[in-house]
Write a structure and sequence with these properties.
CATH architecture: 3-Layer(aba) Sandwich
Number of domains: 1
Structural class: alpha/beta
Radius of gyration: 18 Å
CATH topology: UDP-N-acetylmuramoyl-L-alanine:D-glutamate ligase
Order of helices and strands: EEEHEHEEEHEHEHEHHEEEHHH
Strand content: 15-25%
Number of helices: 10
Distance between the termini: 35 Å
Shape: globular
Strand order of the largest sheet: 5-4-1-8-9-10-11-12-13
Largest sheet: 9 strands, mixed
CATH class: Alpha Beta
Length: 326
């Protein structure tokens, strides 16, 4: 069993994609009528790394980006947010960075994602074997990196190397159907990955998907604890979350805000949760801070630029009446 106290001793290594997000501007504009867009760093893993650093933690990213202007945009953005990119490799040929064209509106929000020849899927075993895992406090990955080869095999190799170095493994399920050849393949690979990890975070639909039935999602989460996971967080949207450990199940609520969009909440939650744990906060407090960060991000434009600082988060928590469930 990995020592979760390592979270406070060194930066976290996050595996997975970085990309460019283009937001129809001004907020509320549908993509099909937009004549102006604003750019931001995107990609679930990059967003998690930014959330973690903005919340006071330290993070490095392990991935591939395209050897072109969009890839260089991602590198510059990682630098601007203070995310270590020493293990980000530029790859040429036909590889291209993930690109998302997104709206800032709550109802019928459209997000058009271009993932053909995705550069992050080009990550190889050689990339992960070049890392000195003893420098890090934890390995964080999202399910997206498992959707294609050689990234899938490389990620499982990283799991082995990180485990050998004593790092906790943290898995954000992050199921994106468009990245997979079939739901059956995704379910099998996700279950294999989750069984290796110390902390698993996902929503009720994702756990239900892994279980083969939406009404068995919580049973799946409980089975991961029974098989050795230290923490499983089962998110339920407006109904809050259940944090499961070997000794307890704790329900927490959400912080209600005037949301502008539905995107970015999960990345904000996980990054802030891990930063809070690395600062020595109790698990329930860390979950609540993650929930508050998620509420703040959906009320702001963008994902990476919307991630709150500790001062902003503390100010929000001081003024907010508190979490509610449902």
């Amino acid at each position: 069993m990995a020592d979760l106290s390592r979270l406070g001793q060194a930066p976290c290594l996050v595996i997975g994609r970085a990309g460019m997000d283009l937001y129809a501007d001004p907020p509320g504009t549908p993509i099909e009528t937009a004549t102006r867009f604003t750019s931001a760093l995107g990609g679930s893993s990059a967003n998690i790394a930014v959330a973690l650093t903005r919340a006071g933690g330290k993070a490095a990213l392990l991935t591939c980006v395209s050897d072109d202007a969009v890839g260089r945009f991602c590198l510059a953005q990682l630098d601007a947010y203070g995310v270590d990119r020493a293990h980000v490799r530029a790859t040429g040929g036909e590889a291209r960075n993930s690109l998302a064209v997104v709206e800032t509106r709550l109802e019928n929000c459209q997000s058009v994602i271009y993932r053909n020849g995705a550069a992050d899927f080009a990550m190889t075993a050689a990339d992960v074997e070049a890392v000195d895992y003893s420098r890090f406090g934890a390995l964080i990955t999202t399910g997206t990196v498992l959707a294609a080869e050689p990234s899938r095999t490389a990620t499982f190799r990283a799991f082995d190397l990180a485990r050998a170095a004593g790092l906790p493994l943290i898995f954000d399920i992050d199921y994106r159907p468009y990245s997979w050849r079939s739901a059956a393949e995704a379910s099998e690979v996700y279950s294999r990955a989750a069984a290796l990890c110390d902390m698993i975070v996902g929503n009720d639909v994702e756990f239900g998907f892994m279980a083969g039935s939406l009404d068995r999602g919580l049973d799946k989460a409980r089975s991961l604890i029974a098989k050795g996971a230290q923490i499983v967080i089962y998110k339920m949207g407006e109904a809050g979350a259940i944090t499961l450990t070997a000794g307890a199940e704790v329900r927490t609520g959400i912080y209600r805000t005037e949301a502008l969009k539905p995107t970015g909440a999960g990345d904000a939650f996980l990054g802030t949760l891990i930063a809070s744990l690395s600062q020595g906060r109790a698990l329930t407090d860390a979950v609540l801070r993650g929930s508050a960060a998620a509420a703040m991000v959906v009320a702001r434009v963008g994902c990476a630029p919307a991630m709150p600082t500790p001062e902003e988060l503390d100010h929000f928590l001081t003024l907010h009446p508190g979490p509610t469930a449902g």
